[in-house]
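PROTOCOL LOG
Step 1. Enter all chains and additional molecules of the complex.
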Amino acid sequence: MPARTFLAVLEALLKDDRAHYVLAALTAATVAIAALAPPIRLLQPSALGITKREAEEYASAALLAYLAVTALVGAPGRGQLVVKKAAERDLLLTQPVSVRAYLLASSVREALEGGASFAFSLAFAAPFLGPGAKAALLLPTLALAHLFLETATGVLGLAAALAGARWVSAPLLAYLAAGVLHSAALRSLSPLLTAPLRWIARPIVLCFTLSEPWWQVLAESLPLAAACAASSAAYALLSERFAHPEMMKLLSEVAAEEVGGPELSFSSDPRSAIFELHLKRAFATRRHAALVAAATASLAALGFALARFGLAEAIKPGMVLVWFASVSVGMLLGVAAFDLGPLWFYRVNCADLRALAAAVALKQTVYLSEAALALSAFAAALSGRLEYLLFPLANLPFACASSVGTLAAVALIIPRKRLVKHTQEGLTVPEEWLLSAALASAAPLLLAAALFGSLVETGSPWLPLYLAASFALAALVLFVGVEVAAELLYSRDVAS
Amino acid sequence: MACGGIELVNVSKSYGRLRALRGVTLTVRPGEIYGLLGPNGAGKTTALKIIVGLLRPDSGLVRVCGVDVVAERERALRRVGYVPENPVVFENLKVIEFFRLVASLRGIPREVFEERLKRYVQLFDLEGELGKRMGKLSRGNAQKVLAVAAFLPEPDVLVMDEPMSGMDPEAQRAFREEVARFARKGAAVIISSHQLPMVERLCTRVGIISGGRLLAEGALDEIRSRVGAGADAALEEVYLKLVGGGAG
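Step 2. Run joint prediction.
Step 3. Record the structure below.
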């Protein structure tokens, strides 16, 4: 594969995401923050209640879990690969670009975007965790780690596509099961789970610690770089088997095949039709109920297992819930963009946009609450405090504010851009950042989640009153937010 | 049927520094089929989107059935059917579900809906498509579905942006006949298209737009004489003379 083709495709993919600006800005910001900010040295791993070695073990087990889950969940059907955007498939079909060049460029794109975003968010923590010059190595280290994970999951995906998904998922599941059983026997994390990716986790952890010089961190990153080269080569080699771009399937097409739900019925009430479309079809399915039940049960089981390993003290359930609340809003953008893509249809057919805003906001609130329920099962199992199961209620104000905030943010970009045929191909990287910034308005409500954790931990008698207040606040936020979002949906221009 | 048709009076619209429409004035009277022609980027889609309230004009007046679209959009659009060009659709809805949604939003009684749907399914040969998801349709079938969705409420005004792209010849014929039927019943129809022979055959009046300005408007004979073309000159020749594409 000529390097020129690869670079041209990479450039096209980055520009299509408008990621080149973001990458440049993030790199400059990360280096500036990490290198210039004075080290405050407040939070050592020991201050978190864990040693550096334990931090490496947890991080490597988490990376392995990520790799395995991505490979298991994202494994395509036999003989097909998934393409993110229609434009990318068009590029493959119409230009002399090999599948190999596309796949490698796509992995590097993901690694650069993901690594830069993650490094940027971690860079704010760098002054608290370690001296500047070493923390500046975060960016290349994280980009390398991302690239390795991208290409390694790519190799597993190609293997699944070539041989059939079960030939990959069965050994992977068996290995994970052995690791979990061994951990249970040891009452600590098994080397089966921590050893395979420790050499990826180690340089990342070392970026945050004080005792190693920067050149040692750099040296520790070399095996990671070598592994990236090896996994990229394996990826390129396997991708040669996919000579035909026709084997590439659009992510949205795959998603559409998986959509079930009861068929939309005829309704003489326009509002009922909207609620049926956005709520009943989304939630009233056996598949959805099974997924929520499975996720809740799995996380509860994980909580029990971690408690048995004696990790309940190291992992603060309250902090887990706050972390969840802050990262979960990202998934809302996709849902809102998908639901509001055909806004032209609602507008031209005189739909009640208040009903539309309410239905989509409720849908998102329910999604967030289901995820909160699964996390609360984890926290309850880990800590042995059943009160944590009430977290979805405590999180309602944040969930409602995030939902209506997302709607308003999407309504604001609709005039400028033809909104998304499919979630995944709708927004460029800067737009995602812009919308995330708009959602920051809901951030103060994160305090509610944090306060809930402390009320549970202290066994406060104010908990019932607090939950009642949360519910009332959530209702108010939803009511006012839906009005504002509906007005924006009504009054703004529509590009799609 | 029959309402006041469509009126655009001195309508302008800009996207940032790009002036998409510059003081466009046009009228589509009840019973008229108006063909809006122009090169790519001329402002046709912008004009149609302004008529159906998807875009707000920077200045000027837009009336549908005598109702100001900006001030009373819902009242104005209650009698409008719209076929957009290459729109974002409900990818996961089956075609039959999409039609039910249209009927629900438009308040069409069930029996009337079923009767009309039966006729349109037959007319556009959509029997085999009803169970398919919208996202899985071919371009032509998607256009047929969008056209039927516009016809279903029996509107007084039809606004159609490249409605026949991708349609097979039988569907094109059915579409033309249906549009003509609507016009005979008094509907005002505006169609944007690059298919000049179709426009020549179907439309009673034509407007040619370029660079956001309406260059000429009227019955084909009037435009012919205005540009000094012969009485038997084809619309294509007249069009190219007006927009300056003589090479074509």
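Step 4. Note key features.
Strands of chain B lie at 6-15, 18-28, 33-37, 59-64, 67-68, 80-83, 157-161, 188-192, 205-210, 213-218.
Chain B has a mean pLDDT of 91.
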